[in-house]
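Re: beginner question about structure tokens

> Can someone show what the tokenized structure looks like for a real chain? I only ever see the sequence side.

Sure, here's an example I had lying around. Input first:
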Amino acid sequence: MPLQEEGGGPMRAEKWSLLLTLAGRLADLASTYAAFALNPFAYEQNPFMRALLPAPAAALLVQLAGGFLMWLIPFLVARRPMVPRLLLLVPPLLSWLPIPNNALVALGGEGFLRLPYPSFSP
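And the corresponding structure tokens:
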């Protein structure tokens, strides 16, 4: 599998995958803060991020670093022969998954991403 597209251009699929993954992480953080603003009973289910939310700069740095690492592993694996490049769709899909969950929380619901985290009652 060549590392460059036909004609020597940049690796478009990899760049779009990274861009969409990082945008999803930013949208997750923004929708989390929006859920807090709209619903006084909203809470962050991820215990690690819960501790970082009072410091927006730290939360942003962790979200971007996590998004990059989330993208890097499939990127490195997709460069191997016989591995489908569709694997690069996984990080953006996982990255955007929390946004509808945060929208449900903002509307007063519990969201659907409760299973990965231990029980927490605010």
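Each token stands for a local structural state, so reading them left to right follows the chain. The helical segments are 12-38, 47-52, 56-78, 90-96, 98-106.
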